[in-house]
Amino acid sequence: MTVDLTKLVHNAEDIGFSDLSKVGLRGQKDEGQVCTLISRDLSGSDDLNVSLGRILPGQHHLCHHHPDASEFYVVIAGTPIVHLNGVEHRARPGDGIYIPRGTSHGITNDTDVVVELVVGMSKPADWEFVSDE
């Protein structure tokens, strides 16, 4: 069996980050950046999506939920506030945070340090984003 590394291996420096593009219930812009590394389109994945995320100082990733997918965060750098169904958790590097489907969640970076995260979804693409704020 031949392995096609061009479909299986992706690097964030090569792909680059893009700004989040969702809009909240009052028209506010979602803030943060994402670089997708594993997905249906990039890798042919049929069961998950993995990205690197960045929340810059002062940014807020809108509270939202996914009725059709669970998610996780692994904090690599920074100490953001993670919002989980109205409860705030001050995260730190090394935290793994599981977000069951339907759970409202968001991130606030109220520090001067860039927050870096590994973000995973239980679907390879096309999950629903429902804004909660």
Q: Can you give a write-up of this model?
A:
The protein has 133 residues and is mostly beta strands. It has one domain: Jelly Rolls, CATH 2.60.120. Helix content is 9%, strand content 40%. The chain is built from 3 helices and 11 strands, in the order H-H-E-E-H-E-E-E-E-E-E-E-E-E. The strands form 2 sheets. The protein has a 6-stranded antiparallel sheet with strand order 1-2-3-10-5-8. Strands 7-6-9-4-11 form a 5-stranded antiparallel sheet, with no helix packed on it. The longest helix is centred in the first third of the chain and has 4 residues, at 5-8. The protein is globular, with a radius of gyration of 15 Å. Residues 54-119 form the Cupin type-2 domain.
What descriptive keywords fit this protein?
single chain, 133 residues, mainly beta, Jelly Rolls, six-stranded antiparallel sheet, five-stranded antiparallel sheet, 9% helix, globular
* CATH fourth-tier homologous superfamily: Jelly Rolls
Mean pLDDT: 96
CATH class: Mainly Beta
Proper CATH architecture: Sandwich
Radius of gyration: 15 Å
- Quaternary structure: single chain
What is the topology, as strand order, of the major beta sheet? 1-2-3-10-5-8
Order of helices and strands: HHEEHEEEEEEEEE
Number of separate helices: 3
Pfam family, one: Cupin_2
Keywords: Metal-binding
Domain Cupin type-2: 54-119
Protein name: Cupin type-2 domain-containing protein
